[in-house]
Design goal:
Mean pLDDT: 78
Number of strands: 10
Distance between the termini: 29 Å
Shape: elongated
Low-confidence stretches: 1-21, 133-138, 264-271
Helix content: 25-40%
Length: 283
């Protein structure tokens, strides 16, 4: 039976953390790299083993012709399934008794994610910022997931180390969010007891945005700060370092703050991609 949607049908996000009996479905894309397994450990550290199902997803190249980059005669589908079984065994050694599902697909990653979500609704995707063969701060698959998928995604840097999640920085770009878009953030804060620092990009409606966020974050410890001008990314990074931030959250929208974090020259120079996990919410 498919798990119920974790963030659906609740009258108030402030009560979400009390509904611990609701099953969560966490999707863990993997290319069998250490970075992707570290993301799985982040998920385990955050959600544990009770009332949660983890699905490991691997996408592979289905050869229609000989590829010079792959050994002759390699069965990529079998390699994918075998790799998933190895990851499952390793994950179970860390987790003990846990619900795990394995999915192998030759679709593009985002398409495979959507297919899985349609069959068994996914509450959150957690993946590494870099995969095998990616040498930038953010890999191609991660960029595709956060820019094209309709699902909320946490991108976990390869250098992440287990730490109690105490402080979350939510970078508010000044555009209105729905309660539904913030529910993954509220759920995580409720589970961990973390304080949320809301960093407003001042666009003239700070008071209205604060009132909305106070309602959405009722019952969750939180505070507000504002930033003006073009120094948003620098302020974001400085706050992460100075305040000991454990998770950064942004809302995905075109031509907004999240776009500057993942596109163009900014993403290539941003230090925080290698420091803290990034939660990309859906606007």
């Amino acid at each position: 039976m498919a798990p119920d949607k974790c963030w659906q049908g609740l009258h108030s996000p402030s009560y979400l953390w009390k509904r611990t009996f609701i099953m969560r479905h966490i999707l863990l894309p993997t290319d069998f790299s250490e970075a992707s397994f570290k993301a799985a450990l982040f998920a385990l550290d955050l959600f544990g083993t009770e009332n949660v199902e983890y699905t490991f997803l691997n996408v592979y190249l289905k050869l229609a012709y000989r590829n010079a980059l792959l050994p002759q005669g390699q069965d990529t589908e079998r390699a994918s399934r075998n790799g998933l079984r190895r990851v499952e065994r390793r994950f179970r050694r860390k987790a003990g008794k846990v619900r795990v599902a394995l999915r192998s697909s030759f679709s593009a990653l985002v398409n495979a994610m959507e297919e899985l979500d349609a069959a068994n609704p996914v509450d959150l995707v957690i993946m590494g910022t870099q995969g095998e063969g990616n040498y930038g701060r953010v890999g191609r698959n991660t960029s595709a997931a956060v820019t094209s998928s309709a699902l909320p995604v946490i991108a976990v840097p390869a250098k992440w180390e287990p730490v109690k999640l105490d402080r979350v920085l939510f970078a508010d770009d000044g555009m209105q969010e729905t309660g539904a878009s913030l529910r993954p953030l509220v759920d995580i804060a409720g589970l961990t007891g973390a304080r949320i620092i809301v960093l407003h990009v001042d666009q003239g409606n700070t008071a209205g945005q604060r009132a909305m966020h106070k309602a959405s974050l009722k019952g969750i410890p939180h505070s507000f700060r504002s930033v003006q001008g073009d120094a948003v990314v620098d302020t974001l990074e400085r706050t992460v370092l100075e305040e000991g931030i454990d998770l950064v959250a942004v809302v995905r929208r075109k031509r907004s703050l999240w776009y500057r974090l993942f596109q163009g020259s900014t993403s290539k120079r941003m230090a925080l991609h290698g420091i803290v996990p990034l939660l990309v919410l859906r606007g």
